[in-house]
Amino acid sequence: MTTESASPGSSTGNETAARLGAGRSAAVIIASTSAARGEAADTTGPILVDWLRSRGYDTPDAIVVRDGEPVGQALRALLVDTPEEERPRVIVTSGGTGLAPDDRTPEFTAELLERQSPGLVYAMWRKGLEATTSAVMSRGVAGVRGRSFVINFPGSKGGVKDGITVIDELLEHIQTSVEDTTDHGPRV
Q: Residue 21's pLDDT is what?
């Protein structure tokens, strides 16, 4: 296996996408009160769903919920109420990571994770800082529950695109690590 990165549109990218998501599902949760009420369009869900589908994951349309407790309910439905063998392998949220009183996505996510991976969020902050200083206001978390990887993306299109740029090249390694299918070899 090579470590070269290819775009999803190239032949190598298509082979990687097929291998990466084959037989696996993913889910996208959008935390947006205005989109849940029908007062605004969900602009980040389609981007995330298209990305995961391009990587070979069976991904339904985004689940759009109000900020706050509905995010926690959606996460619990996927990570607790769903039988373990049917849980999505990747769950991406967008929104609810800021400083508003109902921005509670990180708190609801963190309480369901078994292990966190703060370096992934740090890498997304660094990428976001290339375009805007407000990137560091995102309080997202990332981590694992069972064989599911969960990460919080910001609610902006720019933040989502930055997050995809960072996570896309790591997604295969994340998946093989979570599934414990990586041959680590001898420790030296």
A: 86
Please indicate, yes or no, if residue 183 is contained in any of the structural domains.
no
Per the structure, how many domains does the chain have? 1
What is the CATH classification number for the domain harbouring 88?
3.40.980.10
Give domain status of residue 171, yes or no: yes
Angle at 177 between CA 173 and CA 182, to 5 degrees: 85
> Who's near 126: CB < 8 A, 6+ residues apart?
none
pLDDT tens-digit series, residues 75-92 = 999 999 999 999 999 999
**What's the predicted TM-score (pTM) here?**
0.87
Domain, as residue range, for 144: 11-178
The whole-angstrom separation of Cα 88 and Cα 150 is 9
Residue bearing the bigger pLDDT, 16 or 43: 43
Residue 108 CA to residue 70 CA, distance in Å, equals 10
